[in-house]
Amino acid sequence: MSLASDMIRGHTDTIILAQLLKEDSYGYKINRAIVEKTGGLFELKEATLYTAFRRLEQSGCITSYWGDENTGARRKYYSITPHGVEEYNRMVAQWEQSAGLLQRLIYPE
Amino acid sequence: MSLASDMIRGHTDTIILAQLLKEDSYGYKINRAIVEKTGGLFELKEATLYTAFRRLEQSGCITSYWGDENTGARRKYYSITPHGVEEYNRMVAQWEQSAGLLQRLIYPE
DNA sequence: TTATATACCTCGTCTGTCAAGGTATATAAC
DNA sequence: GTTATATACCTTGACAGACGAGGTATATAA
Questions:
Q1: Helix, strand, coil share of chain A (percent; to 5)
Q2: How far is the CA of A75 from the C1' of C6 (A)?
Q3: Which one of A83, B4, B74, B99 is least enclosed by Cβ atoms within 10 Å?
Q4: B28-56 pLDDT, tens per residue?
Q5: Rounded to an integer, what distance in angstroms lies between the CA atom of residue B39 and that of residue B41?
Q6: Quick count: other Cβ atoms within 10 Å of Cβ A49?
C-alpha cells in the first residue's frame, strides 16, 4: 500500500458521499472525478471503490439503480440517502477534529 | 475500531517520531504526552504503541535501551536515528499533501 | 493485602486496502 | 476479422495496522 493511501484510509466513504451530494453518479465517473480533482495525485483502486459501495449500501447511506443507457457499458448509479447525508456531516466533523489533533501531534513541541 | 482511530491510522509512526525529536522517551510517557496534547481526545492503545515501536526499530528509525532507574518499573527508552529523522520529514510532507488532497475531496464541488 | 499507578509485552481478531484476476460493450486502427 | 483502447462492472485472497483481552513486574498508599 502506498503511503498516500494509508493517509486517506478511512476517508474513502466520506469522499464517495461528497461526490454523491451534488448528484447521482456511478463508480467509474466518481473515480475519474477524484483523479481530476487531485491532479492525478490520488485515485481509488477499483477493489476499494466497489468494497466501499457495498459497505455504504449495507449501512443505508446510499441506494443503487441500473442506468438505462442503450449504448456502451451498463452503469450502476448511486444515490445518497438522508441517512447518508447525516453520516457525511458526521464524518466531515470527525475529519476536521482529527486533522486538528494531528496538527498538534505531528509537530514537535 | 473507532472512527477517530481510522483517521489517525497510518500516522502512528509519525506521532511517535515527533515525540522523539525533542528527546529520548519511553512508551508510557509518550502516550501520556499524546493524551495531554489532545486534551484527552486521543490516545494510542498499548497494543498499537508497542507494535509501532517494533516496526520503527526494525526499519531503523529508532533504537532502544533500558533505563537505569533503581526504583519503580523498568523503562525502555527510544532514540530517533538520523534515518528516523529523514523518515519523519518525509511523513510530515506526505501528511501535508494528503491533508490538502482530502480538503479538496471531502467537500462537494 | 488490596488497590492503584507505573511500565512493559503478546496473541488473536477485525477491517480497509488492493493486486490480480474476470466479464461485457463500443469504437478505432490495422 | 482481430487487435487495442476506453468504458464499466465485479470477486477473491492476501496483507497490514489497530486493538481488545490477556499477561508480567515494581512501588506506594489505604
A1: 60, 10, 30
A2: 59
A3: B74
A4: 999 999 999 999 888 899 999 999 999 99
A5: 6
A6: 19
In sequence order, which residues have a C-beta less than 8 Å from that of residue B24 and are 6 or more positions away? B77, B78, B79
Instruction: Count Cβ–Cβ pairs < 8 Å, chain A vs chain B.
Output: 106
Cell 488532497 sits on residue: B101
pLDDT tens digits, one per residue of A37-84: 999 899 999 999 999 999 999 999 999 999 988 888 899 999 999 999
Would you call A23 helix, strand, or coil by DSSP? Answer: coil
Minimum CA–CA partner of B13 in chain A: A106
Task: Count CA atoms closer than 13 A to B46's CA, side-chain side.
Answer: 1
Asked if residues A78 and A18 have their Cβ atoms less than 8 Å apart, the reply is: no
* C-alpha cell belonging to residue B80: 530517533
Please state, as a whole number, how many other Cβ atoms lie within 10 Å of the Cβ of residue B5. 16
Q: Which three-class secondary structure state does DSSP give residue A62?
A: strand
